[in-house]
């Protein structure tokens, strides 16, 4: 009898990923997954090798957000896995679909704690931070493991999934016929979840009673890719909308119904608020006073039933996916049934105008050194002709000012620190945004924020990605230290030349300290498509502690 043709775990993992259209891996190579990465690349999967697993993981998570397919991050065992865990947790928190695949050490040794190379009980370490976690112990289960990981990541509320592949499984052989039958092509991984017709009617009935309705769009709405239906619903009903940070651009920020420039007024005065893919978490002050009125009633569209009533009672919960839900709303909407009052719309318009005028004064000043407003005005003007550009943004003041100043006109183009306000997402998000879309990226980074993952500039240069990193160099976390004083806990080197770092990798560096040079360098960088870093000198006294969220710092009872 002839021996059966054999394959192994490495091949099966690659086959399972390819079978399910997972065509890109972000990772860091090493024992036991080096050959997996090599084989994946040889078999036509795009492999992006990073300098740190955390950045690779962030890249995978934002790839998932942009494509609705789980982004894949590949790491080694032990510390490599742990480095990827922050990104997995961040993905889960932000409802981004990703799969962290890590090789793991010999289970027999790990379980007896006999000290294997990079020994950790990875499956159990991952569980609290993941939407789901699986371990594959037999090569014939690789197909099932990958299929379950995909389904768990993208169905329902998306999240991060951990898939543990033991070194033994990767190396195990199995006959080709058994292997072929073990693979699963996942059918309809994220089935639509239409809301019940009653829930839609209940929501419309409540909206009909509203005089001062407001729609809040969250990144769940952006993720759902229901852009046209959301826009039609807003324009047909005439309800003003407020985009959460990453929902900017579903409708353009310049849209007449945008209430963004009258945020506190709109939130404080609204009688019925319709949340679409946005949670009433800290970013919306939990729906509590003083920002919110006690009498506000809520409609909430969310795929997760358990999200309802988490912070405020929801009068009209609509549990379903946003794409199906918006279609259902449009179908049931009677002409002119919803009528925001004239006073309401006028009130928002006037408040907007006042705030925009106030902001214009700051934007048009051209102080030396630059402050956040003047530098961002220069960037805004260059980007206003480039709706194709992805904007990545992190920092404290750098984040808060950029969110307000840089208008977005296309959906899913603004990628930022999200639900946690996490630092260190910048380079990973920039790399994946560019890799997934083929479009240029401008990453607007605080100098502290940039420091978390700055070495990924080498990755950007190695793959020659059109990423322009603008470092807002104010010499510190929030602000710089006074000249000549010893470093404070928030201080960073004021004279740092971040532009020299990218030059070391063959990219272009600029060092700018006025708005004209900033505009010119950004324009040139985008025209060239070359990896670029602009070290942008910002007044070290311009920032405020914690940016816009200073109130979240605990206050000592002693200093009342
Ligand atoms: P933001 O920070 O922009 O306010 P959040 O991350 O707090 O947004 O909220 C996103 C919400 O969107 C989550 O509650 C999540 O369950 C929900 N969500 C994600 N995808 C979908 C979808 N396709 N359909 C419906 N809800 C979704
Ligand atoms: C993983 C805490 C919030 S904002 C910030 C830190 C360290 C940096 C702010 O300084 P930056 O911006 O970037 O220079 P700017 O414009 O205000 O000067 N560790 C993680 N996440 C967070 N959020 C922190 C620490 C923090
Ligand atoms: Mg700073």
TrEMBL record:
<feature type="domain" description="Thiamine pyrophosphate enzyme N-terminal TPP-binding">
    <location>
        <begin position="9"/>
        <end position="123"/>
    </location>
</feature>
<dbReference type="Pfam" id="PF02776">
    <property type="entry name" value="TPP_enzyme_N"/>
</dbReference>
<dbReference type="InterPro" id="IPR045025">
    <property type="entry name" value="HACL1-like"/>
</dbReference>
<dbReference type="GO" id="GO:0001561">
    <property type="term" value="P:fatty acid alpha-oxidation"/>
</dbReference>
<comment type="pathway">
    <text>Metabolic intermediate degradation; oxalate degradation; CO(2) and formate from oxalate: step 2/2.</text>
</comment>
<dbReference type="GO" id="GO:0033611">
    <property type="term" value="P:oxalate catabolic process"/>
</dbReference>
<dbReference type="GO" id="GO:0000287">
    <property type="term" value="F:magnesium ion binding"/>
</dbReference>
<dbReference type="InterPro" id="IPR029035">
    <property type="entry name" value="DHS-like_NAD/FAD-binding_dom"/>
</dbReference>
<keyword id="KW-0456">Lyase</keyword>
<dbReference type="Pfam" id="PF02775">
    <property type="entry name" value="TPP_enzyme_C"/>
</dbReference>
<dbReference type="InterPro" id="IPR011766">
    <property type="entry name" value="TPP_enzyme_TPP-bd"/>
</dbReference>
<dbReference type="GO" id="GO:0042802">
    <property type="term" value="F:identical protein binding"/>
</dbReference>
<keyword id="KW-0547">Nucleotide-binding</keyword>
<feature type="domain" description="Thiamine pyrophosphate enzyme central">
    <location>
        <begin position="200"/>
        <end position="328"/>
    </location>
</feature>
<keyword id="KW-0210">Decarboxylase</keyword>
<dbReference type="GO" id="GO:0008949">
    <property type="term" value="F:oxalyl-CoA decarboxylase activity"/>
</dbReference>
<dbReference type="GO" id="GO:0043531">
    <property type="term" value="F:ADP binding"/>
</dbReference>
<feature type="domain" description="Thiamine pyrophosphate enzyme TPP-binding">
    <location>
        <begin position="398"/>
        <end position="536"/>
    </location>
</feature>
<keyword id="KW-0460">Magnesium</keyword>
<protein>
    <recommendedName>
        <fullName>Oxalyl-CoA decarboxylase</fullName>
        <ecNumber>4.1.1.8</ecNumber>
    </recommendedName>
</protein>
<dbReference type="InterPro" id="IPR017660">
    <property type="entry name" value="Oxalyl-CoA_decarboxylase"/>
</dbReference>
<dbReference type="Pfam" id="PF00205">
    <property type="entry name" value="TPP_enzyme_M"/>
</dbReference>
<keyword id="KW-0786">Thiamine pyrophosphate</keyword>
<dbReference type="InterPro" id="IPR012000">
    <property type="entry name" value="Thiamin_PyroP_enz_cen_dom"/>
</dbReference>
<dbReference type="InterPro" id="IPR012001">
    <property type="entry name" value="Thiamin_PyroP_enz_TPP-bd_dom"/>
</dbReference>
<keyword id="KW-0479">Metal-binding</keyword>
<dbReference type="GO" id="GO:0030976">
    <property type="term" value="F:thiamine pyrophosphate binding"/>
</dbReference>
<comment type="similarity">
    <text>Belongs to the TPP enzyme family.</text>
</comment>
<comment type="subunit">
    <text>Homotetramer; dimer of dimers.</text>
</comment>
<dbReference type="InterPro" id="IPR029061">
    <property type="entry name" value="THDP-binding"/>
</dbReference>
């Amino acid at each position: 009898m002839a021996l059966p043709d054999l394959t192994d775990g490495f091949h099966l993992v690659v086959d399972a990923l390819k079978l399910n259209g997972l065509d890109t891996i972000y990772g860091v190579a090493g024992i036991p997954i080096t050959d997996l990465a090599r084989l994946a690349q040889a078999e036509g999967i795009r492999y992006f090798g990073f300098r740190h697993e955390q950045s690779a993981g962030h890249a995978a998570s934002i790839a998932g957000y942009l494509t609705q397919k789980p982004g894949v991050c590949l790491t080694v065992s032990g510390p490599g896995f742990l480095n990827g865990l922050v990104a997995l947790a961040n993905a889960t928190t932000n409802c981004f679909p990703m799969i962290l695949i890590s090789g793991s050490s010999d289970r027999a040794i790990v379980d007896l704690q006999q000290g294997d190379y990079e020994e950790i009980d990875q499956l159990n370490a991952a569980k609290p931070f993941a939407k789901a976690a699986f371990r594959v112990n037999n090569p014939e289960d690789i197909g099932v493991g990958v299929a379950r990981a995909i389904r768990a990541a993208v169905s329902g509320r998306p999240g991060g999934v951990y898939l543990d592949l033991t070194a033994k499984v990767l190396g195990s052989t199995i006959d080709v016929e058994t292997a072929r039958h073990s693979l699963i092509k996942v059918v309809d991984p994220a089935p639509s979840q239409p809301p019940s017709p009653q829930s839609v009617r209940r929501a419309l009935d409540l909206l009909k009673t509203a005089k001062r309705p407001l729609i809040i769009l969250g990144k769940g709405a952006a993720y759902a890719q229901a852009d046209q239906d959301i826009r039609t619903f807003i324009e047909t009903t005439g309800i003003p909308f407020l985009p959460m940070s990453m929902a900017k651009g579903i409708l353009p920020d310049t849209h007449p119904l945008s209430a963004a420039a009258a945020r506190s007024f709109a939130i404080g005065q609204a009688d019925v608020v319709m949340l679409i893919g946005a949670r009433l978490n800290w970013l919306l002050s939990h729906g509590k006073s003083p920002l919110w009125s006690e009498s506000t009633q809520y409609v909430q569209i969310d795929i997760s039933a358990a999200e309802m009533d988490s912070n405020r009672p929801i009068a009209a919960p609509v549990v379903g996916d946003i794409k199906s839900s918006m279609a259902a709303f449009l179908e049931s909407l009677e002409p002119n049934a919803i009528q925001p009052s004239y006073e309401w719309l006028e009130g928002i318009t006037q408040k907007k105008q006042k705030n925009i005028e106030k902001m214009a004064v700051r934007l048009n000043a051209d102080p030396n050194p630059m402050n956040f407003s003047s530098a961002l005005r220069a960037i805004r003007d260059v980007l206003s002709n480039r709706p194709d550009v992805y904007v990545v943004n992190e920092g404290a003041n750098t984040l808060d000012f950029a969110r307000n100043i840089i208008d977005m006109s296309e959906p899913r183009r603004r990628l930022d620190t999200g639900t946690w306000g996490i630092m260190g997402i910048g380079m990973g998000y920039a790399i994946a945004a560019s890799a997934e879309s083929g479009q240029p990226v401008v990453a607007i980074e605080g100098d502290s924020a940039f420091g978390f993952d700055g070495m990924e500039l080498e990755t950007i240069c190695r793959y020659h990605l059109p990423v322009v990193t603008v470092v807002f160099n104010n010499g510190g976390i929030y602000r710089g230290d006074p000249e000549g004083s010893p470093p404070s806990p928030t201080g960073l080197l004021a004279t740092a030349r971040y532009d020299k770092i990218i030059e070391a990798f063959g990219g272009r560096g600029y060092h700018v300290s006025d708005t004209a040079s900033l505009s010119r360098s950004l324009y040139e960088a985008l025209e060239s498509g070359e990896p670029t870093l602009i070290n942008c000198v910002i007044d070290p006294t311009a920032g405020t502690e914690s940016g816009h969220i200073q109130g979240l710092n605990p206050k000592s009872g002693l200093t009342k």
